[in-house]
Design a protein that fits this description.
Number of strands: 0
Number of helices: 3
Radius of gyration: 18 Å
Number of domains: 1
Shape: rod-shaped
Largest sheet: none
Strand content: under 5%
Length: 78
Amino acid sequence: MNFLRDGLSIDEFKVSILVVILILAFGFGIFNYIIAADISDNWLNLLKTLIYVIAGVNAIEGVSKIVTKIENHKEETT
């Protein structure tokens, strides 16, 4: 738990949980494909949604960092 407290911020922890859920979902999808030779459309939609959520969180975090840098630069110049 010390690693989680010291090594990950709240935002990184949320993204890490999403990645773990995505990996588990991929694993279950592969297992389902091996057993039933099919992956349901609902499961594929869940996987797509998880991928979009992770990409969206990363994109928003990137934009936030850019805005923060611009604001810090403005404060330094004034």
